[in-house]
Amino acid sequence: MTLEETIRRKIDLKTKPLGALGQLETLALRIGLIQQTESPQLKHPTLLVFAADHGIAAEGVSAYPAEVTYQMVLNFLGGGAAINVFCRENGLDLRVVDAGVNADFPEHSSLIAAKAGYGTASFLHDSALTVEQLEFCLAKGAELVQGLQQTGCNVVGFGEMGIGNTSSASMLMSVCTGIPLDQCVGKGTGLTTDQLSRKQSVLQQALTRHGLLTDPYKILQTYGGFEIAQMVGAMLTARSLHMVLLVDGFISTAALLVASRMQPEVLENVIFCHHSAEQGHGLLLDFLQAEPLLRMNLRLGEGTGCALAYPLLKNAVAFLNQMSTFAEAGVSSLDD
Ligand SMILES: O=C(O)c1ccc[n+]([C@@H]2O[C@H](COP(=O)([O-])O)[C@@H](O)[C@H]2O)c1
Ligand SMILES: Cc1cc2nc[nH]c2cc1C
């Protein structure tokens, strides 16, 4: 029997009509396959919020000013953001990564210093990252996840914060999928319809400027952000360490898309947690053939969809490990 058959059989022997736990059964199976066991365990779940600034923000593509990135990181460190609340409620550890915010932070036990610069260059005029910055970010992301694994963590959630980063994500999506740019661009933090038209024309100019790109490293260097590139490095390493990856919003899914262009197998380790309200996320999820656990119209980022969905993973693993079989409970099954 393959491991998949063993897990399916274990699920089917539980005291419930066949298939009655629906998507929770699919989730349990997926976690078992990721961990290569019929008795998976979720250990030290950790949510990483990667934060960085974006040169493209200077082009008026966000509803909010760029300094909100810095201010929100201080809010994360103070414990007052949505992601702090949801991580506390649901038992995830939270770490904030300064991947390249345009200001310096005081030391803090939850802050990981991993600055690649003080914000990227504007991809309207230049490549967002230099080759050196890209290499630094991929290596930092990898190093970070290795460190987490050494502390016993086997579930990692990917969150981000960066004013302007839906612009980066839209470019990465359009270039990697071939989906026309206008279908990949949305209102982000809340642009008006007029402001959205401006964002679309800025991003269209950038696309024309950089021309056809096919190499995922070059695409990431051209349009990425420091936080997106660190997520890519972290995701690839998490996959190689057999960890469970939690992915939710538009930006983190765009990072995953790029990672999957480098190593398609990374997708096998991902639990898609939430379908964001951001225009483009639905098409991106379809492209990746993903069916997220939740659809609650969040469009916040920070990894909030991951933290909200995490209890479902806990319950999936718990039923697989704890529920009685028909034989154990003396309940008549279809086979009796
Ligand atoms: O995760 C999402 O789907 C999502 C959708 C819209 C906005 N965001 C967040 O909003 C910021 C980017 O929006 P913008 O308009 O500045 O490009 C960034 O901090 C993201 O975490 C996140
Ligand atoms: C206030 C605020 C909080 C955020 N969290 C993630 N992206 C954000 C963008 C803004 C503007």
Automatic annotation (TrEMBL):
Role summary: Catalyzes the synthesis of alpha-ribazole-5'-phosphate from nicotinate mononucleotide (NAMN) and 5,6-dimethylbenzimidazole (DMB).
Transmembrane segments in this chain: where?
none
* Top-rank taxon, per record: Bacteria
**One example GO MF annotation:** nicotinate-nucleotide-dimethylbenzimidazole phosphoribosyltransferase activity
Entry keyword set: Cobalamin biosynthesis, Glycosyltransferase, Transferase
Name the catalysed reactions.
5,6-dimethylbenzimidazole + nicotinate beta-D-ribonucleotide = alpha-ribazole 5'-phosphate + nicotinate + H(+)
NCBIfam families tied to this protein: cobT_DBIPRT, PRK00105.1
Name of the protein? Nicotinate-nucleotide--dimethylbenzimidazole phosphoribosyltransferase
